[in-house]
Amino acid sequence: MMRKRQEEFFDVCSRCKTGYSCCNDTTPPVTEERRRIIESYLKEKRVSIKDPFAKKEYVFPRLIEGGYCVFHDKKTRKCIIHSVKPETCVAGPITFDINIRSGKIEWFIKREKICQLAGIVLRDKERLEKHWSVAKEELLRLVKELDGKALAEILKKDEPETFKIGEDCLDEGVLSKLKGA
């Protein structure tokens, strides 16, 4: 059974008033395993989306009219694959970067002015710790599963309006594939 992923935040994001949309002009990486999970979910729910994924340097949900994610429901402003969405989507507003020299994964959180959820999480230490734990689990699995070229490419993406909240040592296997990319 799939555990609930970020369930308590589902309505917060759909009512966002910042004017910034995490579902617009974004290309969250999708591993082969996550792709299988999403495709299975769509089939189970009888949701037909033609060619839901695109690929450039890595696989990601295709963008549709207006630059929105193919899984974004414009009417409800909710994700139609919420329970199986990509790891970076679950982790939001927490994101990461990898410092190859120090061998660490660095954790960042978006500023409240672009993410209401960040403000909610930051005002409640217990909620922050709980969400950060989930974000770490999701993002560490992602970086382990992505190939070196895909991971190197997503690390090039700028994450403005964030600030560092911590760092952890990173698995040597991840560092090795990045050095080889």
Strand order across the largest sheet? 5-6-7
What share of the residues does DSSP label as strand, in percent? 15-25%
Structural class: alpha+beta
Q: Which sequence of SSEs, written as H and E, runs from N to C?
A: HHEEEEHEEHHHEH
Number of domain units: 2
Strand count, sense and closure of the main sheet?
3 strands, antiparallel
Shape: globular
Low-confidence segments: none
Oligomer: single chain
Overall number of strands: 7
Q: Helix tally? A: 7
Report the average pLDDT across residues: 90
Overall helicity? 25-40%
Q: Alpha-carbon distance between the termini?
A: 35 Å
What is the rounded Rg? Answer: 16 Å
Question: What can you see in these coordinates?
Answer:
- The chain has 181 residues and is α+β, with helices and mostly antiparallel strands.
- The protein folds into 2 domains: 15-84, no CATH class; 90-179, no CATH class.
- The chain is 37% helix and 17% strand.
- It has helices at 10-14, 32-44, 87-91, 116-122, 125-145, 148-155, 172-179; strands at 53-55, 59-61, 72-73, 78-79, 94-99, 104-110, 162-169.
- The strands form 3 sheets. A 3-stranded antiparallel beta sheet has the order 5-6-7, covered by helices on one side.
- A hairpin with a 3-residue loop joins strand 1 (53-55) and strand 2 (59-61).
- The radius of gyration is 16 Å and the shape is globular.
